[in-house]
Amino acid sequence: MPESSYLICTESPDVTQAAAVALAGLHEEMLPRPFRVRSKRMETIDTVTLEFEAADGGPPLSFQPGQFTMLYVFGVGEVPLSISGDPEAPGVLAHTVRAVGAVTNAICALVPGDSIGIRGPYGTGWPHAQGKDLLIIAGGIGLAPVRPLILNALAHRDEYFCVGLAYGSRSPGELLYTSELEAWNARGDINVQVTVDHGNPTWRGDIGVVTPLVRRLRCETDDTIAVICGPEVMMRVVARALEDRGIASNNIYVSLERNMECGIGLCGHCQFGKDFVCTDGPVFPYADVAYRLGIGAQ
Amino acid sequence: MNLADLRATSDLLSRLDDSDFASFEEVASELELQPDERLFRENDEARRFFIIVKGIVALEVARPARPPTTVQTLGDGALLGLSWRLSPHRWMWTARAMTATRLAVFDAATMRKALEQDHELDRLMWEVLATQASERLHHARIQLLDLYGKS
Amino acid sequence: MGWLFGDRNTAEPHRYAQTNGDIVSARVIQGDLFESLIPMLISSGYRVVAPTLDEGAIVYDVIDDAADLPIGWTDEQGPASYRSYDRGDDVYFGYSVGPRSLRAFLSPPHLTLLTITRGDTDLAFASDEHEGRAYAFVGVRACDLAALAIQDKVLVESRFVDAAYTSARSRSLVIAVNCSVAGATCFCASMGTGPRCSSGYDLVVTELVRGDAHEFVVESGTDAGADILGALGSREASPSDITDAADVSLATERAISTSMPDVDTYTLLTDNLEHSIWEDIAQRCLSCTNCTLVCPTCFCSTISDFTDLAGKATRTKSWDSCFSLDFSNLHGHPVRTSSSSRYRQWITHKLAYWYDQFGSSGCVGCGRCITWCPVGIDITEEIQRLDSEAQEVPV
Fold first, then answer.
1. Looking at the domain B4-144, which fold is it?
2. CATH number of this structure's domain A133-255
3. Domains of chain B: which residue ranges?
4. Which residue stretches of C156-203 are H helix?
5. Which CATH superfamily is domain A30-122 in?
């Protein structure tokens, strides 16, 4: 019997079982909660880090590093944004936002006390790398989605072997979390490498793409997890560099971006081949997406 | 100069057999640069090449009415210098230490003479230099995309 | 009359039985079946959705009585062509599927999700209620039953559940019809979904016209269906009734002239993502979105907020299409800028990635996308062409 008939005979009974779950589903998954801006810090000329707290007296928004939420500004709209805060302090929900469109401009213009709607968290998180080496390679605003992973790894540093961070940005003025980067570097137990595409007269660090920095990140074990977050082209180039130094492509993870509207895999906008980026991703094993990334317009 | 610590991280040294590696150690000398100290200048004759032991070296270009602009930096373990092997042996960029930097220095004329005698080593050297050139071209192209700019 | 077979507005949702297409036990009802059935359903609280004539096409819509059915009408379909006409008899179901599918009712084109109010200090979000009268879908064809099962898989059994769909779907009643005519764009047989209904219905009827005798062979697929059948005057079907009913489906199947090529569409499509055929199709494709709007399994939607000046906003969900340019917008620029990439997206989703995501094809062979494509692009022909071209030039 053709495959589709199999579905026809098995699906319908389950409809009824799922029905009870369904109505609650809308409330919990698609209904934003009111949040208030607690603090705001300018990161760069166009990027801010905002901390939010729930305004409905409800529970904190627990999340896995790598997940995202949908942020809604009244009268402007809603956008998906990766969470950039500490997963062990979810009472304060942090987002680092770059003003690029109407909604992100409105979010960057918020001030403490302002009200906003947040739903989520959605999507897959970064892999667990406890007991392994953890290499993190970030580009541009891509440092924000890996910050929760870095904070978590540093809070439990003894659970990992080598931990390294390579971070590339456009210019020194566009680096995120600069004081934090210095503090991490000063700890001595995380190898922090930073490079910029264009230096300035006071910049004393590396200039160039992030790829060569990958070689400076040490590994102690054969079991290394590498996570990459940044523009798609940068992630592909870095992934190849990681493969060249012997890290298996299924131990390399990337975070992808596509148009996300519903956040729960029902609206179709973020489809990328066989996956919905909002539910099957945004974090994918590189091995799973490498071929697709090389084909345009997908 | 003892290069043992560099052997694992250097693309060149890691590919040498023990006897060639020993020869390289024999001819290498050590150089220390202070921050901002110039190593070589564009258009000068390329009489040496280097492997960075520790530190950051910038390849820069002088421009009128503004400070020199760095196009790339090279860090620990990097091979610094391609022009010594390519006629007319003239540096294309100015090299300047950005931090306190320690270098292993090789004399170009000595090395070229040695490579003329040893074709196997010469082939290996060409391969390392071509890889370097290819990587730098690749990186320059990636930078042309201005990936971190607003799309 | 609600006591008779339960009121779906309050009753427990029911389960559908599977009959494997074999006629197990059937009843025969006279030709005026729908004259009694439809008022019965309406008086039990259902909104009855059935085929009816609307602007020259036979479409599913809410009807008030059996007179709204397109009795004696038929249609003639082909790529980019549809014509309905009165064929001058009193046959109830002498036509194939029209442009509207049941998702117009279960996932309406526009649906309010929630209301947002700006208070003095904070925003307030309130979910919209989706409860309404239950639907009785009458005259549902095998392809549309298959489409319902697929939509269930997508909207009910995924990680997240479409609450509005699930609520409407679980309370709906399905009275199916075995097709007695095959449209020129129908290809259900090759997709394994029809023309005979095999499951997913409460009742299924086969219309039998034998000389002057006009009767319906009726089978129930659920207890609810059996209850309805029991409330209608019927006689037991004789072996010849059952044979004749089966022959209707066999004759219809033989009359189907379009078929999806018997190839592994998953491998064919995913191996040829950069084939020149996509550019060739794009020369004809208008990116008009018609195929996605008539498709009974397409489910893409867009979320829009409408804000008034008094501090209130409404969030709605509307049908969207992967053929729209801004559908794939990323930072203000579409990912799929070309028609070729959008057509490829649609067909690879339907015939390839749907298997990964939902375990089956996303196509049921209803042929709507062929009929309603303004330039007559035929999904089965394009697969055939890709298959032959891909073999000629290995990629």
1. Jelly Rolls (2.60.120)
2. 3.40.50.80
3. 4-144
4. 163-170, 188-191
5. Translation factors (2.40.30.10)
Beta strands per DSSP E along C155-211: 173-177, 203-210
Cα atoms in the 13 Å half-sphere on the side-chain side of A286: 25
* Measured CA distances, B26 to B32, B104, C338 (Å): 18, 11, 62
Give the count of Cβ contacts less than 8 A between chain A and C.
215
Q: Which residues of C touch B (CB under 8 A)?
A: 331-333
- Edge-first strand order for the sheet with C135-140 is C57-62, C47-54, C135-140, C173-177, C203-210, C213-220, C27-30, C235-236
**In chain C, which residue's Cα lies nearest the Cα of A23?**
C163
Q: What is the ipTM of this complex?
A: 0.89
DSSP code of residue C9: T
Residue that terminates a domain, selected from C255, C285, C319: C255
Angle at C20 between CA C17 and CA C16, to 5 degrees: 15
Point out the domain boundary residue: C199, C226, C255: C255
How far is C208 from C205, CA to CA, in rounded Å? 9
Q: Which residue of A has its CA nearest to C11?
A: A16
Q: In this complex, do A269 and C317 lie within 8 Å of one another by their Cβ atoms?
A: no
How much is the pLDDT for B43?
95
User: Do C248 and C360 have their domain in common?
Assistant: no
- Whether C272 and C279 have beta carbons less than 8 Å apart is answered as no
The reply to whether C12 and C63 lie within a common domain is yes
Q: Tell which wins on pLDDT, A218 or C241.
A: C241
- Kindly report the pTM of this predicted structure: 0.90
- Domain, as residue range, for C214: 2-255
Q: What is the pLDDT of chain A when averaged over all its residues?
A: 90
Distance from CA of A29 to the nearest CA of C (A): 8
Overall domain count for chain C: 2
Give the chain C residue whose CA is nearest to the CA of A36.
C122
Residues 6+ apart with CB under 8 A from C225: C175, C201, C202, C203
Average pLDDT of the residues of chain C: 91
C260 located within any domain: no
Q: Do B142 and A168 touch (CB under 8 A)?
A: no
